[in-house]
Fold:
Amino acid sequence: MYSPIITPQHDWSIDIERVKQRFDREFKQEAFELPPEVEEMPIFRDWISHSLAPKIASPFWDLAGFKKNHRCLDIGCGVSFLIYNWREWETYFYGQEISVVAKSALNSRGSQLNSKLFKGVQSGAAHQLNYENDTFERAIATGFSCYYPPEYWKLVLQEVKRVLKPDGIFIFDAIDPDAELAENWAILEMYLGAEVLLSPLAQFTDLVKEVGGKITATQSGQLFQMYRVSF
Structure:
């Protein structure tokens, strides 16, 4: 049986619950009340018009090298299976998500979209994966490392290493604190309910080395830097 890594030094439940609430509200399409000065920011107008997400989303498939019948774990998956080309990749989709709204949406619609490739979404945080050792050829985790400190991401890397097969690949991203959008995006996210940590990218490369990983490729975006890691 799997044995998830749990740190005794810190209770991550408060951090996780804050992020969960922020995304539950967005997936429910609830209204956010923001100060007028924030609503006047161009990045807020992009967010409210739904033009921001395509700009900042990390194209994980560019680095993943999906092959037919690969098993991929999408950590913090949101509604990934409903919006990306899993059918084209012919890759089996497994998810884990803290947002109960996103999880319910995927589990109710994923099988209708493609019952062969969709293998369901589990509830749970990224540092406690509900899957057996050596299960996946690929794992991805994009868009949420910035809400947690580096010591949390080290736990995530250790868990991903556990569930990946020996020749597996992990794709994740981290916010580039020097990106033009970074500071304003952090302000927007703070008012949406989740604090963003603008950690130096060097901390993530150091963490990968600490857990025995190797960065084999990177790709820069407008907000996030994407990494391909093997263990």
Q: What stands out?
A: The beta strands are 71-75, 92-97, 118-123, 136-141, 164-175, 214-220, 224-230. Residues 1-7 have pLDDT under 50 and may be disordered. The radius of gyration is 17 Å.
